[in-house]
């Protein structure tokens, strides 16, 4: 049996199967038949006569597509069945139809009544040639306007026939045959000779058959006219109204519009005829008028004219005379026979713009440079800013008009519109429109579809349009000042790293299709991303949307094929740099785009080039560009693998050698370009060295590096334009040496084969060792001393302040790794550090310039000025930026007046050398003038203390615009705290401010961003739980709390609380347990171990282990803001929730009780001594997280230490000010609503509380009158059984009972539940005294209320009062009727009247009297 071919069969297998089939002789599954050719008379028997067919191998059946457009699909092709060997001729014959099907229904036209015109005899041998000049001067017949546009030849023929007297015959036939003439009806007065009868205007008679159909039509028309003449005007109007009511309104409107057009056309033709007749003889005028009337005009009777005036539309406006027109048309002008007054109005002078301003918002208009044009400004018209759009008197273009202009068919208009949009975007990013425009220009343009407009324009075949689109895209994506700020911070400590420019992550709603599906069946995020349209992706992320729209291949085409101008090349390189900053995946796409990076390397980073003949060359191809080198550096920042590909596969290593081996003056480039590209080359090399790569170049280029370092003494003055480029080049070189020193410092560890912290094998040792980098320290130290001396020089002061921080970071790196080397000599190193302190650090700290810089700490801080540094109106969520426009003109972290880089470098060096030389921070070795005293002066200076106090009260917001600067400020705060940690034990003056330092540490911890996990670990390990920073613990703090408790109990207006007496003792125990508390929190933060390890490698310079300089995504802080509750919340997540979603009562894990105890102890210390540090956590969040004590297990809250600590926290949370700020209507962070948590608490209380007073107080707290009624309904409705065990007394509850009784309840369902629970005995005073008092108060207030209410409420009041009066329980009846006020000091908790007040008695009598009347009526 033959088998079917399989996809895995090879060609040999198919040939074998074919041979087997042929030998078997089996019939084929399909037979090929040839049909006879019908046109050639072939029959089925004559099958041998076949056509010769020429076949060409490898020739496709279809023509190749000349455009990249997708092939068109036919709707009918799928339903056709064709075979490969079927002849096309046969297929055509099969679908061909015989001619009889076309000619079978031919009906000959009746020509019996058609007029016959004989040709005119003339004396000319040939017909006269028609000329355009003659036809333009002659009058066209009105029939031409009725029929539509006619050719010049047809108009000439019609005019000749009219002159020859044949117009009447032509009209009589055309009036019955042409629809245009049949429907034409114009009102005119009849001539003096009597009415001229013409054909009907609406009845055509097309449906009549027979030889005299036209006569029947005319006879019907005459009968209609006779009947109309016999009717009076009133009867005509009555019939007209009946007819109008029966006809379709749309049909009536159609007839009116036809008559209106006919009236206008007849008026214009008559006017033209009158004007032309004034220049010709009267006889010709009479003939033309008669012929025109016979040909096109149908006269009406006076009655019909009157009806037309009533039924038809209003009379058209009078024709404007030639004198009123802006331009008088001439007869020789083409197509000016019909005047269009609306268009001619544009020829008038422009109206003058408004002269006074207005507060009303107006549409913004811009000039071609992107500047906003004021509405009152009157610009001349020769500027080209006036156009035929809205508000023609105003100059400039609106955004809508620019969008319309960018889609023009004219190349110049498209280029002009795109260039103007680019200028508008540039000025918007610079903040020029912030004070004059409402809203964001960038957001408006993006919402209008600017991105798609620019992407389409990039595909334009005209280079000018494409260049304008590139420039506009660059203006949208790239902010030049953002890049300048990032370049300025590159040489700072960890300045190479940066956050990915990803939009803030937004939680997307789950699709309905995924609901109820298993995890395996649900779509992955990548699949969901692929299903999104370009518009959806662009709304969330502009850069990702551009990548989805294939921007990179198009930019490669522009660079490789189009080879545009230098400006466009620079724009493309900057766009690619911005895309590479977006994320590591975007940088990888740029790197992997086919031929893109190869083009950049070969064209803009060549290894050899010639000098440019002019300062502005026509092409930059074949010349090295700094922007191309910067693109490589940004791509290398995304990861070590990308950097290795650039160095090894794309030839970046050779480019570094070529550019850095020579002096900038020898590079055959302009001096500024040479300095710029060498600075970028050093930066790229520094990034590679940060991964431990390209360090072999250090040995090869060592002479060039030393030569460049020696040029530091030849720096240009600060006022020179090239001075900043020199500073950047030298800073990049020192950063390179810093990274090489980091890498060399790890050589010994890697040589020994130490296993890395990640558990894997160590990477191979780098090609540079410590001995190769140790010799540079002396020369760089000498440079620092020279810079300190230059601070007194006005010419070199700015240069020195810019370079000193970079050198300090290098010295810190050197000494950090020196202590870990085998060649470390302690005695010599300690002496060297003493000299460094006395000759460099102390003179630098005491210098007046540095002291003046420190006064700018608060003004330059991002943390302290968060409310004064807005994001800017042009920052959009889907295109984040750094908000740096104008950074040079305002104080900030990067400004030249900022002390942050200098203090950060100084703090890093102090942290390192005080760790090596302990004596520098001790008075034992320097009893007279110790460095520790000088370091303490730095911490105790007024600028630093004021700055720390401002930071302790600040609440900075997290955003891309601040995160890149906040990480540097957080580092400085951490360094100041580490210095304080070393000085507090030995400096009493510093110890006095220990509470301030501890407060700063507490607020700094939840501020730390991703990538700073190592700093968080250091804060928790060394400062936050350090008893030296909690001075209250060992200076009478607990005793002071106990004393305050005693005063609280002695106050007559406050009620004593037995549990409050234990807070002082609890604090004393907590201070003794600080080391254990620290271990508890570090254990619960163990999930951050990998992040801490990665962050430690970056901070300690373990370059061979660094995977990427790109920081983690900015999704939130590294440590949550509610970290003090972390052990409690973690325990609840592990034990408190079952797999099914309900509460699970399980046995606590080992050590859980101790962890909860330590967590509560720490919370108690913070609430008493560091209350400001917890202000970032809302009170409702505190209550929700403390509720986990009751939800974790069935007996955790019953443990004695947990009971004491929770009682103390409950008293602190329910103090007067804290209780007022507790808002349970606001959803706690992490929960949908507090009510859901409260429902779980009620269920847990019913199950495991056993009437515990602490749990009872926790349940009673949300039942206060000012909170939601839903929680009280849940207690008295679904969980009414818990009222039997809710025995919390008024003395145990620290909340005033008035919080439960006032104001009176207004919820009718809840009042009915109150009354039912009281009557049925579910709620008793002995079981639940607080809610019993509250229920009595609310029911009493309700039944005796005198306020006006709805009928239903009033009926419920009377019914409830009657039921109370007839209660058999006399005690309850008396309490409900005689209730007065709640009283805490009474045994029952409330007071009653001795007798019923008159108002209540009258109310009761009236209600009972109404009932008696009702009973009497019933009887």
Kindly describe this structure.
Strands 1-2 form a two-stranded antiparallel sheet. It is mostly helical. Strand 1 and strand 2 (1390-1392) form a beta hairpin. The protein is extended.
Q: What's the rounded overall pLDDT mean? A: 82
Oligomer type: single chain
Structural class: mainly alpha
The portion of residues forming beta strands comes to under 5%
- Major sheet description: 2 strands, antiparallel
- Tell me the distance between the termini: 104 Å
Short description:
The protein is mainly alpha-helical. The protein contains 67 helices and two strands.
Which descriptors apply to this entry?
two-stranded antiparallel ribbon; 67 helices; 2 strands; disordered C terminus
List the helices and strands and how they pair.
Layout: H1 11-24, H2 88-95, H3 100-103, H4 132-137, H5 142-147, H6 152-163, H7 167-177, H8 179-183, H9 213-230, H10 233-246, H11 249-277, H12 282-296, H13 302-311, H14 341-344, H15 399-405, H16 411-429, H17 441-447, H18 450-458, H19 463-477, H20 480-488, H21 525-531, H22 534-540, H23 542-548, H24 551-562, H25 566-582, H26 584-592, H27 596-604, H28 626-637, H29 640-648, H30 652-660, H31 671-690, H32 696-700, H33 702-710, H34 723-745, H35 747-751, H36 770-773, H37 777-790, H38 797-818, H39 826-846, H40 848-854, H41 857-860, H42 900-916, H43 931-940, H44 942-952, H45 960-983, H46 988-991, H47 994-1004, H48 1013-1024, H49 1037-1050, H50 1063-1072, H51 1074-1084, H52 1089-1099, H53 1126-1135, H54 1152-1169, H55 1179-1186, H56 1188-1191, H57 1200-1213, H58 1216-1221, H59 1234-1248, H60 1253-1260, H61 1269-1278, H62 1298-1301, H63 1308-1319, H64 1329-1343, H65 1351-1365, H66 1370-1378, E1 1379-1382, E2 1390-1392, H67 1398-1418
Antiparallel strand pairs: 1-2
Helix pairs in contact: 7-12, 11-12, 15-16, 16-19, 18-19, 19-25, 22-23, 25-26, 25-28, 28-29, 28-31, 30-31, 31-34, 34-38, 37-38, 38-42, 39-43, 42-45, 43-45, 44-47, 45-47, 45-48, 48-52, 49-50, 50-54, 51-54, 53-54, 54-57, 59-61, 61-63, 63-64, 64-66
């Amino acid at each position: 049996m033959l088998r079917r071919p399989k996809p895995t069969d090879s060609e040999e297998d198919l040939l074998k199967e074919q041979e087997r089939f042929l030998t078997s002789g089996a019939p084929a599954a399909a037979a090929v038949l040839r049909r006879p050719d019908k046109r050639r008379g072939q029959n089925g028997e004559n099958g041998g006569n076949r056509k010769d067919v020429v076949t060409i191998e490898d020739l496709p059946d279809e023509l190749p597509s000349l455009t990249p457009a997708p092939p068109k699909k036919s709707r009918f092709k799928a339903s056709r069945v064709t075979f490969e060997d079927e002849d096309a001729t046969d297929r055509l014959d099969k679908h061909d139809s015989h001619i009889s099907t076309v000619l079978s229904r031919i009906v000959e036209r009746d020509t019996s009544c058609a007029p016959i015109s004989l040709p005119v005899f003339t004396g000319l041998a040939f017909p006269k040639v028609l000329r355009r000049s003659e036809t333009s001067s002659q009058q066209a017949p009105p029939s031409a306007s009725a029929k539509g546009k006619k050719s010049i030849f047809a108009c000439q023929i019609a005019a000749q026939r009219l002159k020859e007297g044949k117009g009447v015959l032509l009209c009589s036939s055309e009036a019955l045959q042409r629809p245009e003439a049949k429907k034409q009806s114009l009102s005119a007065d009849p001539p003096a000779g009597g009415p001229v009868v013409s054909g009907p205007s609406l009845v055509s008679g097309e449906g009549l058959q027979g030889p005299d159909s036209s006569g029947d039509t005319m006879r019907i028309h005459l009968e209609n006219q006779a009947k109309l003449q016999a009717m009076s005007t009133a009867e005509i109007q009555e019939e007209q109204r009946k007819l109008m009511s029966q006809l379709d309104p749309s049909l009536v409107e159609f007839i009116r519009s036809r008559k209106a057009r006919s009236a206008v056309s007849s008026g214009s033709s008559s006017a033209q005829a009158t004007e032309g007749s004034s220049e010709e003889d009267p006889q010709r005028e009479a003939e033309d008028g008669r012929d025109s009337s016979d040909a096109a005009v149908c006269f009406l009777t006076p009655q019909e004219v009157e009806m037309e005036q009533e039924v038809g539309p209003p009379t058209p406006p009078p024709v404007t005379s030639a004198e009123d027109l802006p331009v008088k048309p001439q007869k020789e002008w083409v197509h000016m026979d019909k005047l269009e007054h609306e268009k001619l109005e544009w020829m008038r002078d422009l109206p003058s713009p408004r002269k006074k301003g207005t507060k009303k918002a107006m549409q913004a208009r811009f000039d071609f440079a992107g500047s906003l044009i004021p509405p009152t400004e009157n610009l001349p018209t020769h500027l080209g800013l006036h156009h035929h759009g809205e508000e023609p008197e105003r100059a400039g273009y609106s955004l809508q008009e620019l969008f319309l202009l960018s889609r023009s068919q004219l190349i110049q208009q498209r280029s002009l519109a795109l260039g103007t949009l680019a200028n508008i975007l540039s000025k918007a990013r610079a903040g020029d429109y912030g004070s004059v425009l409402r809203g964001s220009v960038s957001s408006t343009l993006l919402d209008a579809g600017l991105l798609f407009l620019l992407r389409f324009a990039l595909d334009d075949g005209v280079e000018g349009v494409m260049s304008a689109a590139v420039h506009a895209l660059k203006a949208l994506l790239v902010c030049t000042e953002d890049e300048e700020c990032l370049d300025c911070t590159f040489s700072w400590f960890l300045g190479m790293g940066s956050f990915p420019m990803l939009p803030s992550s937004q939680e997307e709603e789950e699709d309905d299709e995924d609901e109820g599906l298993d995890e395996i069946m649900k779509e992955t995020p990548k699949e969901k991303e692929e299903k999104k349209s370009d518009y959806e992706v662009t709304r969330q992320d502009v850069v990702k949307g551009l990548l989805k729209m294939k921007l990179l291949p198009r930019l490669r085409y522009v660079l490789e094929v189009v080879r545009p101008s230098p400006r466009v090349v620079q724009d493309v390189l900057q766009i690619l740099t911005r895309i590479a900053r977006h994320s590591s995946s975007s940088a990888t796409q740029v790197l992997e785009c086919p031929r893109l990076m190869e083009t950049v390397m070969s064209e803009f980073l060549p290894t050899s080039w010639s000098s440019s003949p002019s300062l502005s060359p026509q092409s930059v191809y074949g010349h090295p560009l700094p922007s191309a080198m910067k693109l490589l550096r940004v791509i290398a920042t995304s990861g070590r693998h990308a950097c290795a590909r650039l160095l090894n596969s794309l030839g970046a290593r050779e480019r570094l050698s070529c550019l850095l081996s020579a002096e900038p003056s020898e590079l055959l480039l302009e001096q500024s370009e040479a300095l710029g590209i060498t600075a970028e080359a050093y930066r790229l090399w520094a990034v590679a060295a940060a991964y431990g790569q390209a360090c072999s170049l250090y040995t090869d280029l060592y002479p060039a590096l030393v030569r460049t370092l020696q040029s530091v003494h030849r720096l240009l003055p600060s006022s020179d334009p090239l001075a900043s480029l020199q500073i950047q080049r030298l800073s990049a070189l020192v950063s390179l040496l810093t990274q090489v020193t980091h890498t060399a410092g790890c050589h010994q560890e890697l040589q020994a084969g130490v296993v890395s912290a990640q558990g894997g094998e160590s990477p191979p040792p780098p090609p540079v060792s410590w001995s190769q980098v140790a010799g540079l320290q002396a020369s760089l130290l000498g440079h620092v001393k020279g810079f300190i001396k230059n601070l007194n020089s006005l010419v070199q002061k700015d240069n020195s302040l810019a370079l000193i921080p970079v050198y300090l970071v290098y010295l810190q790196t050197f000494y950090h790794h020196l202590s870990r080397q085998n060649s470390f000599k302690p005695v010599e190193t300690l002496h060297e550090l003493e000299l460094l302190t006395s000759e460099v650090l102390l003179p630098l700290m005491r210098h007046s310039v540095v002291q003046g810089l420190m006064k700018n700490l608060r003004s330059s801080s991002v943390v302290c000025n968060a409310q004064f540094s807005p994001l800017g109106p042009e920052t959009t969520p889907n295109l984040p930026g750094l908000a740096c426009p104008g950074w040079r003109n305002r104080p900030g972290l990067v400004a030249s007046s900022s002390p942050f880089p200098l203090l950060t470098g100084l703090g890093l060096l102090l942290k390192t050398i005080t760790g090596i030389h302990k004596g520098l921070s001790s008075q034992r070795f320097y009893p007279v003038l110790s460095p520790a005293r000088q370091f303490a002066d730095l911490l105790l200076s007024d600028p630093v203390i004021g700055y720390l106090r401002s930071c302790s009260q600040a609440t900075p917001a997290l955003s891309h615009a601040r995160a890149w600067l906040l990480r540097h400020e957080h580092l400085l705060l951490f360094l100041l705290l580490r210095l304080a940690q070393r000085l507090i034990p030995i400096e009493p003056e510093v110890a006095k401010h220990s509470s301030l330092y501890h407060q700063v540490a507490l607020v700094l911890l939840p501020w730390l961003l991703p990538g700073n996990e190592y700093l968080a670990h250091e804060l928790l390990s060394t400062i936050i739980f350090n008893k030296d920073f909690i001075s209250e613990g060992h200076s009478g703090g607990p005793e002071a709390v106990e004393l305050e408790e005693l005063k609280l109990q002695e106050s007559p207006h406050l009620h004593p609380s037995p549990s409050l007496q234990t807070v002082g003792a609890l604090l004393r125990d907590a201070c003794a347990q600080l080391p254990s508390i620290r271990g508890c929190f570090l254990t619960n933060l163990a999930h951050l171990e990998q992040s801490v390890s990665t962050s430690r490698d970056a901070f300690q310079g373990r370059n061979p282990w660094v995977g990427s300089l790109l920081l983690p995504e900015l999704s939130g802080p590294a440590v949550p803001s509610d970290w003090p509750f972390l052990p409690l919340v973690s325990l609840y997540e592990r034990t408190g929730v079952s797999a099914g979603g309900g509460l699970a009562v399980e046995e606590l894990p080992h050590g859980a009780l101790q962890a909860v105890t330590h967590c509560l102890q720490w919370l108690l210390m913070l609430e008493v001594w560091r209350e400001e540090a917890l202000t970032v956590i809302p009170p409702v969040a505190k209550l929700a997280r403390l509720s986990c004590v009751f939800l974790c297990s069935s007996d955790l809250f019953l443990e004695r230490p947990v009971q004491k600590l929770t009682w103390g926290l409950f008293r602190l949370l329910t103090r007067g000010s804290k209780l007022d700020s507790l808002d349970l209507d606001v959803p706690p962070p992490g929960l949908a609503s507090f009510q859901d948590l409260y429902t779980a608490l009620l269920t847990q209380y019913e199950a495991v509380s056993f009437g515990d007073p602490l749990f009872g107080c926790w349940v009673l707290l949300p039942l206060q009158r000012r909170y939601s009624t839903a929680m009280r309904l849940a207690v008295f409705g679904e969980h009414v059984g818990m009222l039997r065990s809710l025995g919390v007394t008024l003395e145990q509850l620290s909340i005033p009972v008035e919080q439960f009784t006032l104001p009176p309840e207004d919820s009718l369902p809840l009042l009915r539940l109150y009354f039912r629970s009281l009557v049925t005995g579910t709620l008793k005073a002995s079981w639940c005294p607080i809610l019993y008092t509250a229920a009595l108060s609310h029911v009493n207030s309700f039944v005796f209320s005198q306020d006006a209410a709805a009928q239903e409420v009033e009926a419920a009041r009377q019914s409830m009062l009657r039921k109370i009066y007839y209660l058999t329980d006399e005690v309850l009846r008396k309490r409900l009727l005689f209730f007065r006020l709640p009283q805490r000091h009474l045994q029952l908790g409330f007071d009653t009247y001795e007798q019923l007040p008159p108002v209540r008695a009258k109310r009761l009598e009236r209600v009972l009297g109404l009932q008696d009347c009702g009973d009497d009526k019933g009887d």
